[in-house]
Amino acid sequence: MKIAVIGGGINGLCSAWQLAEAGHQVTLLERDGLMQQTSIASSKLLHGGLRYLENFEFRLVQESLHERQWWLKNVPGLTRRLPILYPIYSHTRSRWKIKIGMLLYDVLAGKKGIGRHRWLSTKQVKRCSPNLRQTDLKGAYLFFDGQMDDRKLGLWVAEQCKNLAVTIMENCEVTGLDQKGTVTTSKGPISFDRVVNAAGPWAVELLEKSNQELKQTLDLVRGSHLLLPHISKYGHMLEVPKEKRITFVLPFKHQTLLGTTEVRQKIDTPIECSDNERQYLLKLYNYYFEPNLNQQSILREFAGLRPLLAGSDSAGKASREYQIVRRGKLINVFGGKWTTARALGRAVLTKI
């Protein structure tokens, strides 16, 4: 079949990859350059989503854990196993509750696990993370997830697409599509046997502009990150005091990556870290680490807009699942997360 994939982020690229591997003639259209928006503004983790277990998203976590192992095994130059500490204080979730989550995480990973969790004493935690606040610290769980260079890994997927003869058209904005397989660009209409709308946060906007039937809505959630001076080779999974939100403090390219926030916004609002988010993240960092940092300590910051499936009052509890809906020759992709992009591509293939 002759298939168009709209969107040059990781979901579009993985969809094009899986379709081309199955023998289809694929054209990928991207209005800017590949890997320029949401897909390069992640927390740089290939992870199962330990915190999703609280929402009983066992299918998603298991799929993510299996996909995590695939990325680590097959692209070792751009991925690595990362040890992460989950410190336990009196204000955090209880030790037994986290223990249950860690056990489930290991069980769902099965033979595709990359290391089982274990408990560390306060002395062991201090050796791993000397800057971490020791007052009221009870210890920490050590577990493992994957880390990546999201941009380079996405471009690696693009190379797999090119090797399979996928035609990649950058700086080619799609202005309309329909259920008959027609894609309209600035160069005019093009007919395809199938069209995959994988435009991420802009998928719904494209459907609305094209006057297409729309039942699925998205929560557009901005996630901002700060890059700070390096403090540890271990990652940290931390609870925001009085909120129970989870954030990460991670080593990344000899710096410290701090994030993320979760702020709902509209599609036409600039995607950038606000001053409120900057202060929020620094306050969190200073709560857990010494010495305290200020705005002058920020080396760089970035933000991305995540397309989450709508239906939750809290952005933090919104599902990271994906949904794929077919209408005639048009296949629409909603939601998803970086780690499961290959699995999402396979799901798109089944809709073809």
Query: What's the SSE pattern?
Result: EHEEHEHEHEHEEEEEHEEEEEHEEEH
Named CATH architecture of the largest domain: 3-Layer(bba) Sandwich
> CATH first level of the largest domain: which class?
Alpha Beta
**How many helical stretches?**
8
Set out the fold topology.
Blueprint: E1 2-6, H1 10-21, E2 25-29, E3 45-46, H2 58-74, E4 79-88, H3 95-109, E5 118-120, H4 122-128, E6 139-148, H5 150-163, E7 167-169, E8 174-177, E9 182-185, E10 188-191, E11 194-197, H6 203-209, E12 218-229, E13 235-239, E14 246-252, E15 255-259, E16 263-264, H7 275-288, E17 300-309, E18 322-327, E19 330-335, H8 341-351
Parallel strand pairs: 1-2, 1-11, 2-7, 4-13, 11-19
Antiparallel strand pairs: 3-6, 4-6, 5-6, 8-9, 9-10, 12-15, 12-16, 12-17, 13-14, 14-15, 18-19
Helix pairs in contact: 1-5, 1-8
Explained architecture:
- The protein is an alpha+beta fold and 352 residues long.
- It is built from eight helices and 19 strands.
- Strand 1, helix 1 and strand 2 (25-29) form a beta-alpha-beta unit.
- Helix 1 (10-21) packs parallel to helix 5 (150-163) and helix 1 packs across helix 8 (341-351).
- The model has no long low-confidence stretch (mean pLDDT 95).
Features:
352 residues; alpha+beta; FAD/NAD(P)-binding domain; D-Amino Acid Oxidase, Chain A, domain 2; 3 domains; ten-stranded mixed β-sheet; six-stranded mixed β-sheet; 28% helix
